[in-house]
Amino acid sequence: MSLIQEARAREGMLAQPGTAPQPAAWSVTEQPWAWAVAALLLIMPLIANGFFLIEIFGTTLILGTIALSLMFLAGYGGMVSLMQLTIAGFAGYMVAVFGVSGNANISLGWPWWLATPTALVLAVLFGTLGGALAVRTEGIYTIMITLAIGAAFYYFTNQNWAIFNGHTGINTIATPHFIGIDWRSDIAFYYLTLAVAVACYGVVLYLSRAPFGLALQGVRDNPRRMAALGFNVNAHRIAAYAFAALIAGLGGVLQVWNYRQISPGSVAVERCIDILIVAVVGGVTRPVGAYIGAFIFVMLRTFALDFLVKVGLDGNRFRLLIGLGFLAIVFWSSDGVIGLYERWRKRGQHRDTRPGGHGHG
Fold first, then answer.
1. 172 in the Ramachandran plot: left (φ > 0), alpha (ψ -120 to 50) or beta?
2. CA distances from 95 to 98, 250, 358 (A)
3. pLDDT tens digits, residue range 100-109?
4. Which one, of 246, 233, 219, 105, lies nearest residue 163 by Cα?
5. Closest to 112 measured CA to CA, from 90, 95, 93
6. Where does the chain have alpha helices with state H?
7. How confident is the model over 115-169, as pLDDT tens digits?
8. How do 177-178 and 181-182 pair as beta strands?
9. Helix (H, G, I), strand (E, B) or coil at 353
10. DSSP 306-322
11. DSSP helix/strand/coil, 99
């Protein structure tokens, strides 16, 4: 049996003789809370004000989408990339450079429907080239080379004035208007970010069970065997980087539309590490973990800052609280919040199936 057949068997796509297919892991759509959360997200504009709608839930969806690109690489490809936020920032900068902004001497003034696809294509190319370099390494060296790419891009944007306007960045970036709707208005922008997040989540979930995704998981588990079976290991890894770059680029476009400006601080090294924290806290083995981790991170970043200021401490120390929360979650579960939930769920099932419990035994 090839690694792809083994992966299909683990996913429940191929049954062993005489047995029913058994999926290896739960699907989010099978969880009792999933549909309730989906309904809540759809009606969120009816119950949340502008601050919570954009600064909490909109930002969560954007960061979650960028972290989803890292989850795809790490969870299905076994490649931890710290340049995903850099790719998102690159896409955002390209939107500002090719589109319309308050810096008319830099921006080319293209309409959004032309500037945005161009930015995404260039972001995918940037991520593919970075991935082509990263796949030549493994383990800690992959992390270091992707971090080096992120650091190099940060210093380049900070020092380049002709294209990126140096440390000042590019401000007053135009946002899309079409079919008579201002897509940066709170409700419209929220639904736009929700639609992009759902689309990216669905495509990642589909690819994880498609031949490419199964081959990628085979490459993650045993690259030598996959190469012996005739698969081009590096080609699959580079293709994964290209796809992840598209997802990160979409998140970067939404991010620059959200703030209407971009500067080197948006692509700083600590921001790159934040995406890793988001993915690990949520859980890198399932796509939904990226959004769970993003929600936790945004809540801590937003309200921990206010709490520290109120008690007379430096607001910049909110990262200490985020770090402590990160350590606590990772200490109790190597798979983040998703792992904690799954452990709690299995414990409840075990308790119900014990003699005298509420299960059928």
1. left
2. 5, 11, 57
3. 998 889 999 9
4. 105
5. 95
6. 3-10, 34-42, 44-47, 50, 59-71, 77, 84-98, 112-134, 140-159, 186-209, 211-221, 223-228, 233-259, 269-282, 288-310, 318-332, 336-353
7. 999 999 999 999 999 999 999 888 889 999 999 999 999 999 999 999 999 999 9
8. antiparallel
9. helix
10. HHHHHTTS-GGGHHHHH
11. coil
What letter would DSSP give residue 51?
I
The full set of domain ranges for the chain reads: 3-7+50-286
Contacts of 97 (CB under 8 A, 6+ apart): 106, 107, 108, 163, 164, 170
Q: Identify the helix (H) or strand (E) that includes residue 181.
A: strand 181-182
Which pair of structure tokens corresponds to residue 176? Answer: 């899309």
For tokens 């759509």, the residue is 29
Give the SS3 label for residue 83. Answer: coil
Residue 177, helix vs strand vs coil: strand
**CA angle in degrees (0–180, nearest 5) for 28-32-34:** 45
Distances in Å between the Cα of 159 and the Cα atoms of 162, 165, 264 are 9, 8, 9
* Residue 182 main-chain phi, psi, to 5 deg: -85, 105
pLDDT of 319 reads 73
Amino acid code (one letter) for 158: N
Query: Which residue shows structure tokens 């995404």?
Result: 120
- What parts of the chain have a pLDDT lower than 70? 1-32, 309, 312-317, 348-361
Q: What letters, b where the CB count within 10 A reaches 16 and e where it falls short, cover 36-72? A: eeeeebeebbeebeeeebbebbbbbbbbbbbbbbbbb
Q: Who's near 27: CB < 8 A, 6+ residues apart?
A: none
Over residues 311-330, the pLDDT tens digits come to: 766 666 677 777 777 788 77
Please answer whether residues 154 and 267 qualify as being in contact, where contact means their C-beta atoms are separated by less than 8 angstroms: yes
Distance in angstroms (rounded) separating the CA atoms of residues 249 and 91 = 5
The pLDDT of residue 152: 96
Among residues 101, 255, 115, 108, the alpha carbon closest in space to that of 172 is found at 101
The confidence score (pLDDT) of residue 356 equals 55
Give the span between the Cα atoms of 87 and 68, in whole angstroms.
13
Residues in the chain: 361
